[in-house]
Amino acid sequence: MATEPITVHAIINGEKIKTEKTIQRENPTHPEEIVGYAPNNTKEETIQAIDAAFNAFKSGAWSDVNERIDRMKRAIQKLKDATDEIAELLSREHGKALYDAKGEIAISIMWMEFACDHVKKVVTPEMKEHENGKTIITFDPIGVVSAITPWNYPISLSTIKIAPALLTGNTMVLKPSPFAPLAVSRVTELIADEFPPGVLNLVNGGAEVGIELTSNPKVAKIAFTGGTNTAKHIMKAASETIKKMTLELGGNDAAIVLEDFDVNDERALRRMVISNFLTAGQICMIAKRVYVHRSIYDAFVEKYIEAANKWIRVGDPFHPDVTIGPVNNKNQVEYVKSLIEDAKNKGAKVIPLGKVLHPELMDNGYFLQPTLVLGADYHDPIVVEEQFGPTVPILPFDDEEQVIELHNESIYGLTSSVWGEEEHAIRVARRIEAGTTMINTAAVQGLDVRFPFGGVKQSGVGREYGEEGLKSYTETHVINIPKSLELPYIPE
Ligand code: NAD
Catalytic positions (predicted)? Predict the structure, then answer.
């Protein structure tokens, strides 16, 4: 069902700014349909947005935490009221199934509410009296935050930054990805409307805008989610003025299936299949390689294929039976195809999974039928690269030492999952290098916004979510009032 294209604007100092150059966003299900236009902002407009955020921060006009919570709660209510409309727009521009788009908004709201409920605890100064006198510790806002987000979860990966940054008293310029800029712009607009001008600004565009946001001296912190290679550029750009940073980056998450996993547990297999292919595999925190103990490998593969054929239904994201829509963009389709081709050429077996409900869409849209790759080598690109698409290799392992080594030799360490008897799985989990490890589940089903989320090694720096995520938008300031004003170690 084609609708009229919409146009979203940049927001600078509370004003919607119309720009000449635009980014056109197509519908991945029907690429000939334009869903809408976002501005293609210039470097100059980006500087204006940073200046607006800088001045709003300096004015301190909104420094009361209770007021900030009230404003955010009003924005949350508006987001709740607009969920259906925004989810449809997200589904259309992104390609994710409608239930998945609604789920993304639900997670965003859950986190924004958690942030409202916990921010006072995080920013309340601590007073300590001790043998040396008194110490006051305050948790102050940092300043202007540049938030840069990817296309796969544009709303939740933006609100994960907007809510803590604004609630702790910072100001922000947000730049979403050109591959899904529309729904997130709508969400940003409704939040920005609840705050004084300049507190939350929005620009769109590609690397030029990103480079200004990460190098401008008025920016104090960068909150980035995206690829590890982009993060390397960002770190360099930010080094000149030593900016604070939270980086949520790529992963090559593994699922480890132990010998005591029950291959006849249909619900567990459903969880695994869904968590491998949700959002057509375009989630940072889903299993991109599955290692199964050799003693149950054959039975596991058989049951996995059965479960996948039942639960994976590919087609129009608006159809209620569809669990997986198209891939977001053509580049991603080509990249995933090239990894599958490479595996095939090296002798791996590629098995199509799931039912295609709308075959008439497959050739024209950015669809990829989900696949299982068997017989790949442990170090083939399909195993060691982040595929970020609907394909997964399953490989056998012989013992725990081997699988832990295979897991930990990756340059990444975002999330992982261990499947089997709980105590055994926990023992294995404790030896895994990752920011989060889930037991007998994976992906968003195993996510809990109350606890910190982030990666080790080249999967990131710092944590989002939880109180730690809120605190990462504050600077700790220690004020010491010593009892004795003598200088004990210095000769008179
Ligand atoms: P990307 O790195 O290509 O782009 C992310 C954002 O950075 C976009 O807004 C892009 O326009 C911007 N950008 C590009 N070049 C820039 C530069 N030089 N300076 C500043 N900004 C620049 O990533 P993507 O393709 O949009 O997203 C997919 C990647 O994101 C995957 O690697 C995935 O694992 C990762 N990701 C990580 C998490 C997490 O929480 N760790 C969550 C989701 C996605």
Answer: 248
